[in-house]
UniProtKB/TrEMBL annotation:
Residues 202-445 form the Glutamate/phenylalanine/leucine/valine/L-tryptophan dehydrogenase C-terminal domain. It comes from Haloflavibacter putidus. Substrate binds at K90, Q111, K114, G165, S379. The record marks D166 as: Important for catalysis. This is Glutamate dehydrogenase. It holds the Pfam family ELFV_dehydrog_N.
Length: 447
C-alpha cells in the first residue's frame, strides 16, 4: 500500500522535531503536490518529495567577532543548500535574532519552488545568522560580516551558491560580505546579488520584490476585470519589500494607508504619497529609525503600538514584514472589511488558519512563492549581467521583471484553475514550481 499524505507529513515531523515553520511550509506544498504525484505515474516511486524535504547540504558554523568595547561576541551562522536540480543554490541571507535551523529550512524549501517559478535556472538555498544588526555600529556590522564570510566563502561561488539579502541584510551588509569574499578568494565575481551598482549590481534589484508583488496582484485583479487603481491598500513592514510595494502601488493609483515595523503600525488616512514614502525610506534606510517617527513628521497620521495594520479597512492587503504575521483574527477582519486580494511580499506571512479563512472567502490569494518571486528573478538577471560583463538599463530590467511576473501568473492559472473556473493560486504555484524541479531530478537520477 502506498504512503498517504498524513504518513508522509508524520515522517517529516519525526525527522524534523520542533521545526513548526518548516513543517508548515512542507504541509502547505505537499497538500497540492501529493495528489499531483498520485495522478502522474512518472513521478511515482521516485521519492521526489521525500528528497525535496531533505536539504542537500547544511552548513552550521561559529561566527566570533569583536564589538566596539573590545568584547568577543559569538553568533551562529548557517547556509541551507536545499536543492540544486535546476541551477546553482540561490537565496537570501537573514540576520535576525529569531534565525534558527527551522526558519532557514522553511525559507530554503519555499525558495526551491519559488526559484523554479521564475523561469530561470536557479536552485534553492537560504542562510543567515542570529546576529542582530539593530543597534550595532557600522564597524560592528562590518566585523561581523567579515567573520561570517570567512567561513561561508568556503561553500559558495558564482557557479555553486549565490547568496543575497533578506531581513537584516541590505546594501550595507552585502557590500561588507562581498569585500571579504573578494579578499579571501582573490576573485572579483558575481558571488552575491543585491550588490550596489558601483561594483556589479543590477538596476531595479532593490525595487524588484515589492514591484513584482504589485505586478502579480494587478494580474490577479485584472483576471476579474478589476485593478489596484483607486483601491485602499494596507501594507505591513517598512523595509525593502514594503517600501517598493508601496511605491508601485502609489504609482498605479492606489491609496496606501499603512506601514509597520515590529513595534507597531502607522495609519495615514490621507494616503502615503511618494514624498511621504521618500521620508520613510530615509528614516528606515538612512537613519535606521522606527516607523513611529512618521507621526512626528506627519501629525495627522496615527501610530498604533504593538498592533498589526490588518484592522484598517482595505481592498488589497500586502503583508511584507515576516512569517506568520497575519493570523486568523486578522484574516476574519480583512474578509469582513471587503478585502479583494492579498499579495504576499513576505515569505509565508499568513498562518495556516488565516490561509484557510481567506481561501474560504474566495479572496484572490497571491501566495508568496509566486507573488514575491520578482526579487530573486532580478537577482538571476544580475547574475546574467555579471557573467556577460554588461549592465542593462532600468527600463530593460523592469520590462524583464514584468514579463517574468506575467509568466508566473500564467503558470499559476495553468496549474491552479479548478473545475468551476476559479483559480487556486496556492495549488497553481506549488504544482508549477514542483514540476520543473521534479523533472530535473528525474533526469539526474537518485543523487
Ligand atoms: N528582500 C527581498 O528581496 C525579499 C524578501 N522577501 C521577504 O520579505 C520579507 C521582508 O524582507 P525585507 O523587506 O527584505 O527585510 P527588511 O529587513 O528590509 O525589512 C523587514 C521589515 O519587517 C519588519 N519586521 C520584522 N519582524 C517583524 C515582526 N515580527 N512584526 C512586524 N514587522 C516585522 C521590520 O521592522 C522591517 O520593516 C521577509 O519575509 C523576506 O523573507 C521575499 C522575497 C525577496
Ligand atoms: O535574491 C535572492 O537571491 C534571494 C531573495 C530571497 O531571499 C527570497 O526570495 O526570499
Amino acid at each position: 500500500m502506498r504512503q498517504t499524505l498524513q504518513d508522509f507529513l508524520k515522517e517529516v515531523e519525526n525527522k524534523n522535531p520542533n521545526q513548526p515553520e518548516f513543517l508548515q511550509a512542507v504541509s502547505e506544498a505537499a497538500e497540492n503536490i501529493f495528489p499531483f504525484i498520485e495522478e502522474n505515474k512518472k513521478y511515482q516511486n521516485q521519492a521526489i518529495l521525500e528528497r525535496m524535504v531533505e536539504a542537500e547540504r547544511i552548513i552550521i558554523f561559529r561566527v566570533a567577532w569583536t564589538d566596539d568595547s573590545g568584547a568577543i561576541r559569538v553568533n551562529r551562522g548557517y547556509r541551507v543548500q536545499m536543492n540544486s536540480a535546476i541551477g546553482p543554490y540561490k537565496g537570501g541571507l537573514r540576520f535576525h535574532p529569531t534565525v534558527n535551523l527551522n526558519i532557514l529550512k522553511f525559507l530554503a524549501f519555499e525558495q526551491v519552488l519559488k526559484n523554479s517559478l521564475t523561469t530561470l535556472a536557479l536552485g534553492g538555498a537560504k542562510g543567515g545568522s542570529d546576529f542582530n544588526p539593530k543597534g550595532k555600529s557600522d564597524a560592528e556590522v562590518m566585523r561581523f560580516c567579515q567573520n561570517f564570510m570567512t567561513e561561508l566563502a568556503k561553500h559558495i561561488g558564482a557557479q555553486t551558491d549565490i547568496p543575497a539579502g533578506d531581513i537584516g541584510v541590505g546594501n550595507r551588509e552585502i557590500g561588507y560580505l562581498f569585500g571579504q569574499y573578494k579578499k579571501l578568494q582573490n576573485n572579483f565575481t558575481g558571488v552575491l546579488t543585491g550588490k550596489e551598482i558601483a561594483y556589479g549590481g543590477s538596476l531595479i534589484r532593490p525595487e524588484a520584490t515589492g514591484y513584482g508583488t504589485v505586478y502579480f496582484v494587478e494580474h490577479m485583479l485584472q483576471g476579474q476585470n478589476k485593478s489596484i487603481k483607486g483601491k485602499q491598500v494596507c501594507i505591513s513592514g517598512s523595509g525593502n519589500v514594503a517600501q517598493y510595494a508601496a511605491e508601485k502601488a502609489i504609482e498605479y493609483g492606489a491609496k496606501v494607508i499603512t506601514l509597520s515595523d515590529s513595534s507597531g503600525y502607522i495609519h495615514d488616512k490621507e494616503g502615503i504619497d511618494q514624498e511621504k514614502l521618500d521620508y520613510v525610506k530615509e528614516l528606515k534606510n538612512g537613519k535606521r529609525g522606527r516607523i513611529k517617527s512618521y507621526v512626528e513628521e506627519y501629525p495627522h497620521a496615527v501610530y498604533h503600538a504593538n498592533k498589526a495594520p490588518w484592522e484598517e479597512k482595505c481592498e488589497v492587503a500586502l503583508p511584507c514584514a515576516t512569517e506568520n504575521e497575519l493570523n486568523a483574527t486578522a484574516a476574519k477582519t480583512l474578509v469582513k472589511n471587503g478585502c479583494l486580494a492579498i499579495g504576499e511580499g513576505a515569505n509565508m506571512p499568513c498562518t495556516k488558519d488565516a490561509v484557510d479563512i481567506l481561501q474560504e472567502a474566495k479572496i484572490l490569494y497571491g501566495i508568496g512563492k509566486a507573488a514575491n518571486a520578482g526579487g530573486v528573478a532580478v537577482s538571476g538577471l544580475e547574475m546574467s549581467q555579471n557573467a556577460m560583463g554588461v549592465r542593462w538599463s532600468a527600463e530593460k530590467v523592469n520590462e524583464e521583471l514584468k514579463k517574468i511576473m506575467k509568466e508566473i501568473h500564467q503558470a499559476c492559472v495553468e496549474y491552479g484553475t479548478l473545475e468551476n473556473g476559479e483559480i487556486d493560486y496556492i495549488k497553481g504555484a506549488n504544482i508549477a514550481g514542483f514540476k520543473k524541479v521534479a523533472d530535473a531530478m528525474l533526469a539526474q537520477g537518485a543523487v
